Amino acid sequence: xxxxxxxxxxxxxxxxxxxxxxxxxxxxxxxxxxxxxxxxxxxxxxxxxxxxxxxxxxxxxxxxxxxxxxxxxxxxxxxxxxxxxxxxxxxxxxxxxxxxxxxxxxxxxxxxxxxxxxxxxxxxxxxxxxxxxxxxxxxxxxxxxxxxxxxxxxxxxxxxxxxxxxxxxxxxxxxxxxxxxxxxxxxxxxxxxxxxxxxxxxxxxxxxxxxxxxxxxxxxxxxxxxxxxxxxxxxxxxxxxxxxxx
Length: 246
Prior knowledge:
The chain is of the alpha/beta class. It has eight helices and ten strands. It has a domain of 134 residues: P-loop containing nucleotide triphosphate hydrolases (Rossmann fold).
């Protein structure tokens, strides 16, 4: 089981060497992203998330929508405990799994088989579980004899199939996604979508950022519309999507 409670949460991103940046770039940053400001010490910051109050409970599938720079990725990183809040409270209970960077930890000099164990270890998947599912993972990747070859010899599609197969072994309480994963050719995509749907069903809470109205309305039970780091609207998918997408 898992739950998420954010209280008066803000995240400030410092901008180094800001004096060398042009006014034009600063204005562009303001119109496409968070709010630009100064700390008490006079350092330039961008407030990526501003006074977020949010509670997500068991069995909720939450979609994040908003323009580029609205704060979706920053919110996902807070939930994944990559970013710490500059102020406020983040109470995140339960195991967290992320499909934001599925190639993280893949060693190009190691074989596909070695990388299955390396990536699984980073995801804190027990070796015993990998041993039990190894044959199914190898079959799913469709790599054949290439499973014993260095990953640097793989095509991009082969690399992604390997990373996807291992990354979707997780069974977290809270699953974080930045857009839907599409890997491989049409035949493999069908297998991958089924595997991804099974993973989502296993998760207690899903939080996914997407620009796809169809995906949000299909997968989510609730939608948050972010704008300039704040929650502009929070409600059911149909109501929020009609307001955002038109």
